[in-house]
Structures are given as structure tokens and as C-alpha cells.
């Protein structure tokens, strides 16, 4: 059993969790990040990797994918331990005031302090069930993730929502051919101007159409069969059929919540000494649910965790020191 103790364990490897890990490195804290998804980046990677983000300081416009890649690089520069595919299910306070975090799959993690950066909880895409789908799992995607992987490919998007329209428009100009297949007549929650863009685009839109079978060979998808009998030549299939969201079970961890979020003090403290929260998981008056707020809260939470371990530690540090006291 690995019972190595960390100074800080961060629950969640979204943009907030990753930046928290970086700043903890700046404070010389031995840090671990635990993320449920196989990849990092949280909501940004999951929902809008292809979209441009305009409101993060220093970036006049950056794609979600690029932002996550930069935050991840920044975090990795301080060499935190990163554990993925683990969902923290309980937190126990030990006699010495430190914590034991456990996950459903048997993971045990010891830590002096914790920062909860788990957003509103975990999310999973509804899986697709079509004849043949079990054979072509590597060609079925539930988010765009890295748009370059579609270069020159033929991609089909199965969706009746705005997410599908966004994906199809993002793939246009990257993929060789894009198909958007909606079993209904309309797209849900879509902006009028995106429908205009879709109509002006080269995306092949099929309404009132279902995909009924996937075909290929050697576990490589090559064809999607529609209920009209039409066969589309396709290399990759993106599917958005809704989400299963499991809200954070913070109360089970003994943490006070307010409408599913964690009320925090000015130092990002929760009701439990040694546990702090940052990013979308945290709530306080006039809170903005934005990426940059998570970054700022991360710094405060780390500084508080540092002082919880060592009350004499400085309240903050600068990344660039231009003079030194003798
Ligand atoms: C469609 C959309 C567009 C947006 N556009 C913008 C924008 O333009 N600009 C902007 O600043 N903000 C935008 N936001 C808001 C922004 O995405 C969020 O504020 C930000 O992603 C929050 O980051 P986070 O790391 O706090 O949480 P999340 O990104 O939600 O990350 C939390 C992570 O914790 C993991 N996790 C949860 N529970 C556990 C557990 N028990 N164990 C292990 N891991 C766990 C989750 O899997 C997830 O990866 C947008 C949000 C949406 C939905």
C-alpha cells in the first residue's frame, strides 16, 4: 500500500486544479492532483475545446484546447503527481489532523491539506449503442479534444443539440468532409446565428435521420449507415446525446454546501480546517464562474493551505523576484 503523505491534494484536474498545482509548486508543496476523467482540463476540455475564449487575462483569444495545454504545461513544470481515472468518494480526518482520501476504485491518498477544485462534480457522456459500435470504440468520440486529429478525415456528428452544431462548425475546414445527423427537425438551444453559419457552411446536415449501423474492418470505422439506407464514408464519429452529471457529494465529506457549491471564507477555507475550495466548486458573494476567477482563488487557497501547514510561511510569493533583501 502506498501511504506516502502529500502536503496538498487537489481534487479535480480542470483549469482551476491544474493552476492550483502550479502555484502549490511555487510554494514548494509536495502536491497531488486527482482527476476522474482520463484527461485533464475539466469543463473546458469536455465542452468547448474548439471554442475561442476571450476573457482570460493575457490572451486576446485562445482556443479551449490551447489554454488547457498551456495550463497543463505550467502545472507539469513543477512536477506534481497526477492521478487520472479516479473519483474521490470519501474524505476522512485522521487523529493528527491530516486527511485520508479514498476513491471508488480502492485508491487511498494521504494529505496534510486538501483543495477541492472539482467544479460541480463529474460528468459522463451517454454512450452510443449502435450495431457495430463496440468494434469501433477508438473512432467514437464524446468530445473534440484535439482538433488536429480530424485533419483530412471524414467525420460525422450525431447530435440534436447546440453542441453538435458547434462541433460540426469547428470541424469544417479541418476535416475533409463533415456530416451532422439529427434525429429531429430542430437543434436544441442553438443560437440563430449559428444556424445561419451552418446553412452557409459545407457541413452536410441530415435532419429527421438516424444512424443505424457502423461498419468497417480491423476495428477501423469506414462507414455509417443511415435509416434512409444511405451509406456515408466516415472515419470518425462524434456523439453528443446528453450528459450524466453526478454532483459532488460534499456533504457526505462533512462539508457544508449551498445550492450544491461550497461556501468559502476570504481565505478560501471551508467549514473543515485544512480543506479549501476554489473554482466553480466554491461560492461566495459576487462570485464569477469564470476560468480566471478559479486561477485567483487557487492562489489564495494554496497560500492558505501553506500557512495551515506552516503558520510562519509567507502569505504569498512572486514568481519573479527582481531584488533580494540581504
Ligand atoms: C459552455 C461553457 C462555456 C464557457 N465559457 C467560458 C468563457 O468563455 N470564459 C470563462 O472564463 N469561463 C467560461 N466558462 C466557465 C468555465 O468553463 C468554468 O468556470 C471553469 O471551467 C471551471 O473550472 P474548474 O476547474 O473550477 O471546474 P471544472 O472545469 O468543472 O473541473 C472540475 C474537474 O474535477 C473533476 N472532478 C469532479 N469531482 C471529482 C471527484 N470526486 N474526484 C476526482 N475528480 C473530480 C471533474 O472531472 C473535472 O475535470 C464556460 C462554461 C461552459 C459550460
UniProtKB/TrEMBL annotation:
Under Enzyme Commission nomenclature, its number is 1.18.1.2
Query: What is the official name of this protein in its record?
Result: Ferredoxin--NADP reductase
Residues bound to FAD:
16, 35, 43, 48, 88, 123, 280, 320
Q: What gene is behind this protein?
A: ycgT
The record ties this protein, via InterPro entries, to: FAD/NAD-bd_sf, FAD/NAD-binding_dom, Fd--NADP_Rdtase_type_2, Ferredoxin-NADP_redctase_2
Per UniProt, the cofactor note for this protein states: Binds 1 FAD per subunit.
Question: Which PANTHER family did the record assign?
Answer: THIOREDOXIN REDUCTASE 1-RELATED-RELATED (PTHR48105)
Report the family membership: Belongs to the ferredoxin--NADP reductase type 2 family.
Record domain FAD/NAD(P)-binding: where: 6-304
Citing just one GO molecular function, the answer is: ferredoxin-NADP+ reductase activity
- Which UniProt keywords are present, listed alphabetically? FAD, Flavoprotein, NADP, Oxidoreductase
The answer to whether keyword DNA-binding applies is no
Amino acid at each position: 500500500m502506498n501511504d506516502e503523505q502529500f502536503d496538498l491534494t487537489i481534487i479535480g484536474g480542470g483549469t482551476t486544479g491544474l493552476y492550483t498545482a502550479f502555484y502549490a509548486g511555487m510554494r514548494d508543496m509536495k502536491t497531488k492532483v486527482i482527476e476522474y476523467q482520463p484527461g485533464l482540463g475539466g469543463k473546458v476540455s469536455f465542452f468547448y475545446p474548439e471554442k475561442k475564449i476571450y476573457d482570460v487575462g493575457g490572451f486576446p483569444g485562445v482556443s479551449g484546447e490551447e489554454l488547457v495545454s498551456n495550463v497543463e504545461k505550467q502545472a507539469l513544470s513543477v512536477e506534481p503527481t497526477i492521478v487520472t481515472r479516479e473519483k474521490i468518494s470519501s474524505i476522512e480526518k485522521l487523529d493528527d489532523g491530516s486527511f485520508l482520501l479514498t476513491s471508488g476504485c480502492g485508491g487511498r491518498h494521504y494529505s496534510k491539506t486538501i483543495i477541492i477544485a472539482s467544479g460541480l462534480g463529474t460528468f459522463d457522456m451517454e454512450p452510443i449503442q449502435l450495431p457495430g459500435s463496440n468494434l469501433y470504440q477508438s473512432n467514437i468520440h464524446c468530445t473534440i479534444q484535439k482538433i488536429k486529429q480530424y485533419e483530412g478525415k471524414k467525420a460525422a456528428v450525431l447530435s440534436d443539440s447546440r453542441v453538435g452544431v458547434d462541433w460540426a462548425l469547428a470541424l469544417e475546414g479541418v476535416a475533409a468532409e463533415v456530416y451532422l445527423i439529427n434525429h429531429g427537425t430542430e437543434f436544441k438551444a442553438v443560437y440563430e446565428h449559428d444556424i445561419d453559419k451552418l446553412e452557409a457552411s459545407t457541413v452536410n446536415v441530415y435532419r429527421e435521420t438516424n444512424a443505424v449501423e457502423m461498419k468497417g474492418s480491423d476495428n477501423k470505422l469506414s462507414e455509417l449507415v443511415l435509416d434512409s439506407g444511405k451509406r456515408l464514408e466516415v472515419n470518425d464519429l462524434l456523439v453528443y446525446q446528453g450528459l450524466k452529471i453526478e454532483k459532488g457529494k460534499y456533504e457526505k465529506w462533512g462539508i457544508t454546501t449551498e445550492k450544491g457549491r461550497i461556501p468559502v471564507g476570504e481565505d478560501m477555507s471551508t467549514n473543515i480546517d485544512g480543506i479549501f475550495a476554489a473554482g466553480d466548486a466554491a461560492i461566495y458573494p459576487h462570485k464569477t464562474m469564470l476560468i480566471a476567477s478559479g486561477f485567483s482563488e487557487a492562489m489564495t487557497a494554496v497560500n492558505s493551505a501553506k500557512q495551515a501547514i506552516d503558520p510562519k510561511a509567507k502569505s504569498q510569493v512572486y514568481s519573479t523576484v527582481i531584488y533580494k533583501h540581504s
